[in-house]
Amino acid sequence: MEVIWSEETFENYIKIVDYLLENWTMREVERFENNFNKLIDNVKNHTAICPKSKILEVRKCIIDENNSLIYKEINSKIFLVTIIHNRSYHIY
Q1: Looking at the predicted structure, is the pLDDT value of residue 55 above 90?
Q2: Measuring CA to CA, which residue among 13, 7, 14, 8 is closest to residue 40?
Q3: CA distances, 89 to each of 18, 27, 51, 59 (Å)
Q4: What contacts 3, CB < 8 A, 6 or more positions away?
Q5: Across 63-88, average pLDDT
Q6: pLDDT of 89
Q7: Which strands make up the sheet holding 59-62, listed edge to edge?
Q8: Once rounded to an integer, what is the mean pLDDT over residues 41-66?
Q9: What gap in Å lies between CA 23 and CA 25, rounded to an integer?
Q10: pLDDT at 46 exceeding the cut of 90
């Protein structure tokens, strides 16, 4: 299944990696990237693996204790809507 990144998802991904590089070690960067890649693989194989949002037609998956991925399936493609910080206020 094809995965399509939104510009917002890409920007947030880069911000997280940059933050980890500046404030933590390469180990944390690799952990985040591994968690993210495993999650994408799981979503590609099982699009309904994560719970639906109560408000929007999207699904929310936890990447790690700090971040979650918001995505939706459109025409048999996975569209990555955004990555959010778990402590932030959001509509998802």
Answers
A1: no
A2: 13
A3: 22, 28, 18, 16
A4: 40, 43, 44, 77, 78, 80
A5: 96
A6: 85
A7: 2-5, 77-85, 67-74, 59-62
A8: 94
A9: 7
A10: yes
